[in-house]
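Morning F.,

Quick status update on the modeling queue. The single chain you submitted on Monday has been processed. Sequence for confirmation:
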Amino acid sequence: MIDLILRNGFVFSDGIFEDHDIAIDKGKIVTFNDREPAKKEIDLEGKYVVPGFIDSHTHMLNLGLQIIRLDLATCITRQDALAKIKDYAQKNKNKVIVGYGWDESNWKKGEHYYLNKDELDFCKKPVVLYRRDGHMAVLNSAALKKVNLEKKDGVVKEEELNLLAPLVTPSAEEIKVALTKAASFAISEGATAVRDFVDLKTLKAYSEVSLPIKVAKSIYANEYFDGFQTGTNWGVKTFLDGSIGSMTAAHAGWKKDNLKMSLKEFASFAQEFWRKGVSIAVHAIGEIAVETAVEAFYNSPITNSIEHFELMPDGILEKVGHTVISSQPNFLQWALPGGLYDNRLGRTWLTKNNSFREFLDEGLSLAFGSDCMPFGPNYGIYYATSTPFENQKISFEEALIAYTEGGARLLRNPLIGRISPGFYADLAIFDNKYATDTNTLKNKKPLMTVINGKIVYESARAFADAE
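Structure tokens below.
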């Protein structure tokens, strides 16, 4: 008797949806349409079943801290953000107020400018608020004094953020709580595996918690140690530039030192790790950084990934080769006319960013992730399938593959990312309108998430089942 049969599902397999039963035993899919008795059966009544999502670019610690600390991501006006900060500061007994996720570009017209020190000086305790992209923060006077910084506006960017460690670094226990919260949130979004970028403290915390989700860990290059590259661990992470929102991307006309390494420097850096058989995930957003990454990775002896790959120089795709493009379709939320990219970069770049259609037409390997802005595969899939620009727009099925099979290839795990006999039973189950009602896709949550054949999340008792 096998463990579980999911009957009457509309199953995404080999790029199409078909009516299937799914028989599961010992954590893996054993067959379709098997009439063998099972310990448990669930009638899906025609609901949609897709492979569990694989988020190829996450920061699980930051996601968890945003949940347990101050979350500003949902604030839609400046007044909302400031009111939430004041309320949290009054009620919270922590010595330092740390918040995440504010995004001035999402606030109403006339408010598209950064938070500043003067607005936060109502609080006598140190206040540190990270912008949504994580490449800048705004501090109040008390926080600036604690870290011996002088900033008229309170804005701190890029490498200077390292100076904030005494104020914001979580305890070992808080890290474990944050990872646990993040994992629970991820599976509630239908994710069954992630690639997480970690430091040594987070790596240690992972060894001390038991999480249902599969995690491939990529360590920051400056903390790499011999012996890291074992099991599911995945290479090192480094940076070539910053972000568009913080104006620290390596983009023509912006500061030249936004490019953190020249081509020669980055190529030398890469060779050091390749000699050890270690892959590199490099953050590259601006077109200068993207070109630097592509040129350095050209003819690499091992497969690497370029994270984001947002602004695309002309003629660059033919040099990408076997490098994986690890993109975030949810970034298209800023790429609409009148949006952040239009305002920061100009109208020319609206059709030269996040060119998913061109990536796939070129036959390149595309893996989707969220960068936790926000964490939510369907949020990203919505934008990739509804964008008005043809160079970005891909089909629903192509987006699903990028968020499942694409991630599996990147993680080098041949037994996840597909619904097929012999694969791990990692599944996300959605309602009967999932693939047909695109207007609700953006915020669609799964009814159930299954990992290794076990139900790890269920939104409600939505299924008739028999023991």
